[in-house]
Amino acid sequence: MKNNKLDNLTDLIASECIAVRMRILNRVISKIYDDALRQTGAKVSQMNILVAVGKLGTARPADVCAALHLDVSTLSRNVERMKARGWLEVIPDEDGRAQPFRLTSEGRKLLEQAAPAWKEAQEQAKQLLGANITGQLNQAVKRVNKINS
């Protein structure tokens, strides 16, 4: 038996939900970057963290979470993996609670080695989305960051 109300609701969400559309774009674009970065052994999610840490120098977990809009458990899980691979190191902290970390020489080398693959993925993503949408995405991120800061 058909439920017209439910059908209408599912049609509406499937065709208009911003979250659904963003998740689809995220998966498609992430795959482009992950495929390009595969040779480095890193995923785009890890590269994002490494870049944020590289920009911050000595990074406190709360600062990285705020910069990348990550929850603490996601960051912790990724940091543990990257420490195990030698890309990040924890720095002793005075109070012992924050556990700041920084790039190791291996982490810096990884970023340098990954640059050509990242550039290739960046071009593929731009071609797929087009210049107009790419520009709109940049503006949307700036707006969200401004509102959430």
Automatic annotation (TrEMBL):
<dbReference type="InterPro" id="IPR036390">
    <property type="entry name" value="WH_DNA-bd_sf"/>
</dbReference>
<protein>
    <submittedName>
        <fullName>DNA-binding transcriptional repressor MarR</fullName>
    </submittedName>
</protein>
<dbReference type="Pfam" id="PF12802">
    <property type="entry name" value="MarR_2"/>
</dbReference>
<dbReference type="GO" id="GO:0003700">
    <property type="term" value="F:DNA-binding transcription factor activity"/>
</dbReference>
<dbReference type="InterPro" id="IPR000835">
    <property type="entry name" value="HTH_MarR-typ"/>
</dbReference>
<dbReference type="GO" id="GO:0003677">
    <property type="term" value="F:DNA binding"/>
</dbReference>
<feature type="domain" description="HTH marR-type">
    <location>
        <begin position="15"/>
        <end position="146"/>
    </location>
</feature>
<dbReference type="GO" id="GO:0006950">
    <property type="term" value="P:response to stress"/>
</dbReference>
<dbReference type="InterPro" id="IPR036388">
    <property type="entry name" value="WH-like_DNA-bd_sf"/>
</dbReference>
<dbReference type="InterPro" id="IPR039422">
    <property type="entry name" value="MarR/SlyA-like"/>
</dbReference>
<keyword id="KW-0238">DNA-binding</keyword>
